[in-house]
Amino acid sequence: MESVFRDVPYRAGFKHVDAKRLGGRACSTLQFQTDFQLLDLSKVALRGLGIPPRQLIDTTKAHYPATRAWAEQVYAAHPHIQGFLWSSRQDDRALAVVLFGSRVKASDLLDAKLSRPLIRSGIPEDFVLELATDLKVLLK
Which sequence spans correspond to the domains of the chain? Predict the structure, then answer.
């Protein structure tokens, strides 16, 4: 949801997404081997910080320069923070995490060996087709 289907518009009816967007991408699972110090950016936490979600997590890519600048300020001001955690803008049933590579060791993450390509031999995988169906997206 945060990559291939990120720009699917919020409108009724079928939408089209170029199946070429699936090429070279995979869905992987990483297991945290430590408890990371993540800044909570949930809507409740944002309310406590006085930041409306539409200014930070419910934004579009046009807002990335401003949200990136905010993240850089938090990074500089809080050297113990290793990343951010929030509800995915694209799928509010899921959590999104950003980890700061300079503050996380590779050994803090374990590859669960569950990596799956999104498309194989030109045919989208079933889990991709199920999500596309839910979104009413036609992969062309």
Answer: 1-28+115-140, 34-113
Given the DSSP bridges, would you call strands 26-27 and 30-32 parallel, antiparallel or unpaired? unpaired
Q: Where residue 40 falls among pLDDT bands split at 50, 70, 90?
A: very high
95-138 pLDDT per residue, tens? 999 999 999 999 999 988 888 999 999 999 999 999 999 999 99
Average pLDDT of the chain, as a whole number: 92
Are 19 and 64 spatial neighbours (Cβ–Cβ below 8 Å)? no
CA distance 93 to 113: 23
Alpha-carbon distance of 47 to 53, in angstroms, equals 8
Decide: pTM greater than 0.90.
Answer: no
At 49 the three-state DSSP class reads helix
Paired tokens of 9: 């518009």
Choose among 45, 51, 47, 61: nearest CA to 2: 61
119: amino acid identity, one letter: I
Q: Which of 8, 28, 4, 25 is nearest to 16 (CA)?
A: 8
53 SS3 class? helix
Closest CA to 5 of 56, 65, 16: 16
